[in-house]
Amino acid sequence: MPELPEVESLRRGLEEFVVGQRVRNVEVLLGKIVSGRGTKRTNDESKVKNFCAKISGKKILSITRRAKNMMINLERGGMLLVHLKMTGQLVYKSNKDNSTVSGGHPIQLSDNKLPNKHTYIIFTLEDGVLYYNDVRQFGYVLYFDSIEEINKLGHFDDLGWEPLDEGFTLAAFTEKMKSKKGILKKLLLDQKVVVGLGNIYADEVCYEAGVRPDRKVETLSKKEIQKLYNSIIRIIPRAIELGGSSVADYLLADGSRGNYAHEHKVYKRGGKKCFKCGRELNKSEVAGRTTVYCGFDQK
Predict the structure, then answer these.
(1) Alpha-carbon torsion 215, 217, 218, 224, what sign?
(2) Which of 11, 65, 68, 269 is flagged as catalytic?
């Protein structure tokens, strides 16, 4: 699943191409994609009709993000909440020169055929078409009349701070960490303290901070919490600046791969030499995820 830097890079890329355009028509080819966000979704025809009716004719004003969710904001307050999950993809194809701009997980068929068997929503815009494709159909695109409606439904209730927000201060982070118990990496992954730290960035943050990812949170000192905080506010903006990591098959909106992977110090480097001490990096399972760390430099 793409982490915060990848989603933010995609948001910025798509914004350049679709903002300001009006949605002329919407076609939903698989109703469950717009019918809910649970794992056991079924087609709801009334939601499909409402989805198409509420979007058609509206102009796209902006694209924003909360954690790994993208929000396509429409005129008169409406918005689309998009979560690509594991294999979702957005592809914009221009009418002017037939060029395509894709973001999300590459689907080979989409390189030469649009729509295709993985296409489930088609947004016809004034100057092109935006396709939502999804191989495993885990993602969703939901319509809401306002952000207030999203908040009322508690969609973001369990999400912590955004690493880029002013409210994400050392004092706030320290207070939250001191109130928690359990394995550090598990806490970083569950998004309740700070959002966007998936497996890649959790490992990288712990390495830079010199803290083992399998440490119990309640054993961390104030200094170690500060080091974790400093690592988060350095690594996440840097990853966004470089377009994310794209270590597997995640593409940016211009079709290129993110290149923060060149700066990875531990992720997928198990058995290789630590950049700090030269010793072999450990590889184990922590919080159900493959984890790499230095047993010497990380305490």
Answers:
(1) positive
(2) 68
Any catalytic annotation for residue 279? Answer: no
Active site annotation includes 289: yes
pLDDT over threshold 70, residue 251: no
Distance of CA 240 to the CA centre of its chain: 11
The CATH number covering residue 44 comes to 3.20.190.10
- The answer to whether residue 283 sits within a structural domain is yes
Residue 3 is a catalytic residue? yes
* Any domain includes 128: yes
| Annotated catalytic residue within 37, 59, 283, 289 | 289
- Pair (140, 223) in one structural domain: no
- Nearest CA to 123 out of 18, 259, 268, 205 is that of 18
The pLDDT value recorded for residue 39 is: 80
Instruction: Give the range of the structural domain holding residue 26, as residue numbers without chain letter.
Output: 4-152
Residue 49: its H or E element: helix 45-55
CATH number of the CATH domain containing 215: 1.10.8.50
**Total count of domains within the chain:** 2
- From the list 3, 6, 204, 208, the catalytic residue is 3
Q: Specify whether 68 is catalytic.
A: yes
Task: Provide the token pair at 78.
Answer: 């409406």
CA 246 → CA 104, 136, 260, 267, distances in Å?
10, 19, 8, 12
* Residue 254: per-residue pLDDT: 73
Q: 261 with 246: CB under 8 angstroms? A: yes
| pLDDT score, position 50 | 96
Is 237 inside any structural domain? yes
Q: Are 15 and 131 contained in the same domain?
A: yes
Q: How far is CA 215 from CA 56, 225, 230, 271, 293, in A?
A: 51, 12, 18, 21, 12
In a domain, residue 298? The reply is: no
Q: Are residues 19 and 119 in the same domain?
A: yes
